## 1
Amino acid sequence: MKLHDLHPADGSRRPRTRVGRGIAGGKGKTAGRGTKGQKARAGGSIPPWFEGGQTPLHMRIPKLRGFKNRFRTAYEIVNLGDIAQAIESGRLETGEAPKAAKGKSAAPVTVNQELLRDAGLVRRLDRPLKVLAGGAEVTTALFVVADAFSRTAKTQIEAAGGTVSVLEVPTESRPAIGVDRPARRPRASELAAEQAARAAAAPRERAAAEPKPKRPKAERRAPSAPSATDEATPSETADGTNEAESGSPDR
């Protein structure tokens, strides 16, 4: 095989249709554009959203105001009235013991998301549960475990002698019970700051470690000879009077 033997596969390349080259070519005269009209003119293309002059779709449909928060928390909602009705109908088991001692109150009814789903009050378990105070007030003591409570629902449950338990989702990693948290590796900025502090403190530590040179004691000056003024000044006697005033015995 030589270079001139190479050629593309049959049907893979077709010659370009030359229009406007006479009626014998098949695409002459109007060149396949038809007779007159907007599309027959040069530059007469129509945008795909043009609908012939009628009101376009993007103007016909209503516009939604505001926005929808994509980060909101979607709760499974249940009302206290529905819980009370489920207890009365027997869909939620009560905590009454068959042989309860006299004077002791019945055990509170445990309510959680799994039990509510079995009772048909909620549908999903992959969403957090929130309890609201809609419907009739609860008169039975309840022990409700949920992710969130409204203020009124919490007040009604506690007023009926029940308790609420809020499931807390940890916002940070916590070590297992009995396992010490591993030490955090210092960041690069902390290491750089520590090295800079050491470099700044090194000259001071070096200067403090070096012994200070002892200064030589100053030589005592020899007593100077009395001056002429000192000789001319009369000396004082033992009683504090000058010899000149008291007079010498020789006189």
Note: Residues 11 and 180 are 74 Å apart (CA to CA).
## 2
Amino acid sequence: MSGSWRQQLRHARRVPFPKLAIVAVIIAGAALTSACSQPSDTQQAQQQQQAADEQARTEADEKAWADAEKAGTVAAYTAYLQNFGAGTHVSEASQRIVALNEAARKAADEKAWADAEKAGTAAAYTAYIQSFGGGAHVAEARQRVGELSRKEADDKAWADAVRAGTTAALTAYTQNFSSGAHVAEARQRLATLDEQARKDADDKAWADADKAGTAAAFNGYIQKFGSGAHAAEARQRLAALDEQVRKEADEKAWADAEKAGTASAFTSYVQKFGSGAHVAEARKRAAALETQGRKEVPTIDIQKTCQLAAGAMVKLMGGTTTEQDINACLDSEQKARDQIVKDRATYASADKVQCMRTDVYLPSYVEWLTCLEMERDVRKMQQEEQFGAGPWTLPRVPRTINNAGR
């Protein structure tokens, strides 16, 4: 710059004054302009320092970024951002942090899910849901919780039912968990309990019937347990008791018939015990007594008696006599004779002499039977002393009354 000024001054000495003045002004302006355009040493130093600082900052930024990338952690990238908030890689560092946080969240989600699956409990899946409410496996975790809650409730209810071991507990389980894991076993146990209860009731009923030992007790057992374990034996015992009762009744009836000793008693025995032990003898005795009775009971011409009696009724009452009337009379007379023969042993000899007379007008078995029964009944009342002492006889009916009745 000083050399330039000298050359300009030399040149100025050669130029005339007016020109020289103009030239001087020009040179002065140029010198001034040149002086203004040249930086000072201080400015230049500052610029150099700024350039150096920028270079250092850039190098520090790149080194910090390289270190952060090498570490590859959220902490490293966060430190980079804190130290170089306006650095070249701020945006990328922020992205890396977001990516690392997402990866960490996903890894934590997967680990928590793996832990929950490994535990396999409702509590573990619930903890996963609480920690990762928006996690990738929340829906499945909720489903597992529902399934496990039902299963846990099912298993607990089943354990309670098994521990109780009662029909009521097992039935309650099947009602509350109709599609539970243990329903089939519950039904099997119920069937077993029912069978055991039935068997116990069967055995107790049989023990009670056996202890009583009566036909009513055995019948009661059979009615309640018709296919029970002791039904066959109960029927055998019933048959034995029935046979014993029949035999005892047979013997008693026979003893009564023998005690009475009448044809009617033996005939009654035969009618009641057609296959009894004494039927043959009873028939024999009844036949003998009836034969003897027929011999003892006088014979009446009931055909004549009935025809004359019918005619007498026509005369007395008017009207006509039919064959049906006569047949009814004949039937009554025959039945009366049979009754007299049957019960002849129950009539007193004096009564038979008094009542069974053939020398009266129109003798009748019906009248004889009436007379005999009335005399017998009176004698019976006398024996019971219901009417005092002394002989009692029914008043005789005059023959004229009998004839009029005929």
Note: Residues 12-18 have pLDDT under 50 and may be disordered.
## 3
Amino acid sequence: MLVTGRDGVEPGYRIRTWNDRQIIREKDINLVEIMKNGGETRRRAFHLPYEGARRERQLRCLWLTRVDPMLPDAGDLSYTFHLLTSLARAGVKLTVLAAARAGHCARRPVADGVEWRLFDPDKDWESHGNSAFWSLFSRLPNIAARYKTATFQRELDAQLVREWDAIVIDHLGMGWTWPWVEAYCRKNSDVISVFIAHGCESEIRWTMAQNYRGNVIRRIGLHFDARKAGLLEGKMVQKSTLLSVITAEDRRSFGNLAKSVLLAPGYAGTHAGSREITAATPRRALIFGSALWFAKQMNLIEFVAAADELFWRNQIELWVVGKVPDHLRAGSHYRATRFLGFVDDPEPIFRDVRIGIVAERTGGGFKLKSLDYIFNRVPIAAIRGGIAGLPLRPEIDYLSYDTMSELAQGVVAVIGDLEQLNSLQKAAYTKCNTGFDWPDRGHLLRDAMQQAVDGKSAAMALT
């Protein structure tokens, strides 16, 4: 707030509060600290290169993420790519450190306003990354242990000799870097750490363990892994300077911390101007998105088991579009289900389906496929709780069911009701049309980071 002449301070100064002390600043450079002790007021003037001086240059940010998110083929990679590029466009000087993906060139010095530091992963990356058994002997959960390779550690060490204002740890999978980041921040006390949470991983992994119905030994391993995920996640949530969450539900799970900033995904795809589902539209349901993560495989297996025969008897096709492990696609026992794999341009597929399915009983969090459905005007049928983070009303903007069996039966019941299908897709589109712009997310994150950096600088000046 602006001071109007009290405490002998000239009007026009600005007050900020840090702990029990007030800081009055003018023109971002000259500051006066006021400390009251009973009726006595003490003032101390000092100079600090505060906001105005810092903002003459861009924030320097190191972004640590698991793999190159360019050309994303999974929801988590899409979120990472669009959030970091929107942050760069918001004026942050961004360097991204990540492992290159197989078949993609690691040489990309600058693109999308970002300095990319990509490296070829270790030769044993595949065996190291896919071995859940190997991670049992680590204190880290599987998702983090798989990325803690010798090459990644060397590349991280090389980046930490540079000067940064902020270091971002993107996803729990990069939690292995926390000791490095924490040590850097201790040495450079004005640097902030930012944890980008893609969901409340401890809750997600406990749900995976509880819902898994396969091998008993693997189920025990999932429980063990969930505990390790909870410990690592809890440490990062508690000790990071800033926490980014995707949904309000995640924020509540983390304790509604004041340092948390809500950054729901934006949408970067095409908006279908208009669409009408007619009798000529194939009686086809769609599951869109990759199923490489174990939780998504569990969901896919469970839903296809409930729906395949039922759909076939009711002349309904089920198309699964996205990367799916070969062992799920193998065999000829599916009758209504067709696996198309990853598709570069899914828009023609969206035009030729009647309903999109969100069968996510295990995994939680925001489902980016929901935005693909909404903005391509595909009505949604979902498991209850599967539309977290969206302003949609069940039975008005989408259909909601308690179990996989009920979801499959609900699709059969509504697939021929053209009036309801069109009402659902129009209502959902109208509800979300203006609320999911990525540039807004970049500016929100930049402002939160700048405020945290400024806060640290001011606090240091008082010590």
Note: The chain has a mean pLDDT of 82.
